[in-house]
């Protein structure tokens, strides 16, 4: 099937089959992507030590911050490309591709330079102690040095999905995970490079995958491909990309701020082992969150295309299916957290104190998961259809507007337990807010859908 035919099928093929076709590779890819940090923590926890896991946890805000800038370009560009393909504006879609490459290069290099200059003060601000700072510094020096390749890799994967190449995007991600495991084995187990070995493995695997992505996007036979004349930044396209990407940017930025606050509160009320326990709990939660993000990424080109072509009935069908799948995934995560926390913790560490902290953190962190899948899909849905302000509000409601105040108040009364209580409380509250917002907008969508059907019927009668 050629690329153009695959793109046109977004508006004709049954929605259920399309979601399966696009979401399954994305789920596999996102799950594989989450294995980066999980694999690193497994190697580091078993071979370097509990303090090293705590040090790696301190780098979470850095990873979220880098991801925020990457999402601003990658998600924004992929959504813009999907909409333009739905409108059959192929020239603009191709120019968005070129501008995506340029933006990733500029942002990736600038982010690395600034962060490397102020690395130690930033890590201290993120919650690093005298014990964890050396581990966090060793890891981030390597990650930041190769950050431009990471930015480009994630951005091009998003473009591949928007260009009707979800399988190739999945293969690129799986390749990086396999190479990461191989290189972790070599660098950490054989060469004893410690936490730096984990960082080298991550960057090297992404660089190799990027070469594969660029070869795919350089194929002149494809509907979208790299060529001369598309790399010069155009203000209109940059505004389009950033305008859509601002929502996931703020989402990741909020995650960064929240993790900074969580880390500092954990150090204050529980010490380095509490930080490490939260890092393990976050690793477990990330697997299921990535599943839902894969569903969202599978929904994105379908929703974007059908919104662009004004097929609102198909738009609502893909939304409803995505919510059902996401809810099932997150409920599975809750079952794992409630009934298998000790088994999961033992994968990362044999330290008894760190295991105890990880079990408690995992249970509390995922207790409201059956509700949060709905919130994630609805937030992404508004982003896909260009309702950026609504998407931003829903993103902020979960992380910044609810969680941060709870993290400041509850520990004053309950100590370390107050931090654990705040996590599910914010998730449940955000899900309720998303439900009411979606209910209000659903009325508007149904009205638009009825108007569309009426116009089509009148047109057939006139014919």
From TrEMBL:
The keyword Transport applies. It comes from the Bacteria. GO terms for molecular function: antiporter activity; xenobiotic transmembrane transporter activity. It is found in: Cell membrane. The chain crosses the membrane at residues 20-39, 96-119, 139-160, 172-193, 237-262, 274-295, 315-337, 357-378, 399-416, 422-441. CDD domains: MATE_MepA_like (cd13143). It is a multi-pass membrane protein. Its main location: membrane. Keywords: Antibiotic resistance, Cell membrane, Membrane, Transmembrane, Transmembrane helix, Transport. GO terms for cellular component: plasma membrane. GO terms for biological process: response to antibiotic. The keyword Transport applies. Belongs to the multi antimicrobial extrusion (MATE) (TC 2.A.66.1) family. MepA subfamily. NCBIfam families: matE. This is Multidrug export protein MepA. It comes from Prevotella lacticifex.
């Amino acid at each position: 099937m050629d690329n153009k035919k695959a793109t046109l099928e977004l508006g004709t093929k049954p929605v259920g089959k399309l979601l399966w076709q696009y979401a399954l590779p994305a789920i596999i890819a996102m799950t594989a992507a989450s294995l980066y940090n999980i694999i690193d923590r497994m190697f580091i926890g078993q071979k370097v030590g509990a303090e090293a896991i705590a040090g790696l946890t301190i780098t979470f805000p850095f990873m979220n911050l880098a991801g925020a800038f990457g999402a601003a370009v990658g998600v924004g560009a992929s959504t813009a490309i999907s909409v333009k393909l739905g409108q059959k504006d192929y020239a603009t879609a191709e120019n968005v591709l070129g501008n995506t490459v340029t933006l990733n290069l500029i942002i990736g290099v600038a982010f690395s330079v600034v962060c490397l200059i102020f690395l130690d003060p930033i890590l201290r601000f993120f919650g690093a102690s005298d014990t964890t700072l050396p581990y966090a510094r060793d890891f981030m020096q390597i990650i930041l040095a190769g950050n431009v390749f990471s930015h480009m890799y994630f951005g091009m994967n998003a473009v591949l999905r928007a260009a009707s190449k979800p399988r190739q995007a999945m293969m690129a991600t799986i390749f990086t995970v396999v190479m990461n495991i191989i290189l972790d084995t070599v660098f950490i187990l054989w060469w004893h490079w410690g936490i730096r070995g984990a960082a080298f493995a991550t960057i090297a695997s992404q660089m190799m995958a990027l070469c594969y992505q660029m070869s795919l996007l350089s194929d002149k036979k494809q509907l979208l491909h790299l060529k001369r004349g598309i790399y010069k930044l155009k203000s209109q396209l940059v505004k389009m990309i950033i305008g859509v990407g601002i929502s996931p940017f703020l989402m990741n930025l909020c995650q960064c701020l929240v993790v900074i606050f969580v880390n500092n509160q954990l150090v204050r009320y529980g010490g380095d082992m509490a930080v490490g326990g939260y890092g393990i709990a976050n690793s477990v939660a990330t697997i299921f969150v990535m599943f839902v993000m894969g569903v969202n990424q599978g929904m994105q080109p379908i929703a974007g295309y059908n919104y662009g072509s004004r097929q609102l009935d198909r738009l609502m069908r893909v939304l409803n299916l995505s919510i059902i799948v996401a809810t099932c995934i997150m409920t599975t995560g809750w079952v794992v957290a409630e009934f298998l926390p000790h088994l999961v913790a033992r994968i990362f560490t044999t330290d008894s104190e760190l295991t105890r902290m990880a079990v408690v953190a995992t249970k509390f962190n995922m207790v409201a998961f059956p509700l949060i899948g709905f919130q994630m899909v609805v937030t992404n849905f508004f982003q896909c259809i260009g309702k950026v302000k609504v998407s931003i509000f829903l993103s902020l409601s979960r992380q910044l507007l609810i969680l941060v105040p709870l993290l400041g108040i509850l520990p004053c009364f309950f100590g370390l337990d107050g931090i654990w209580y705040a996590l599910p409380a914010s998730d449940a509250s955000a899900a309720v807010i998303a439900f009411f917002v979606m209910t209000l907008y659903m009325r508007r969508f149904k009205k638009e859908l009825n108007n569309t059907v009426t116009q089509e019927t009148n047109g057939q009668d006139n014919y």
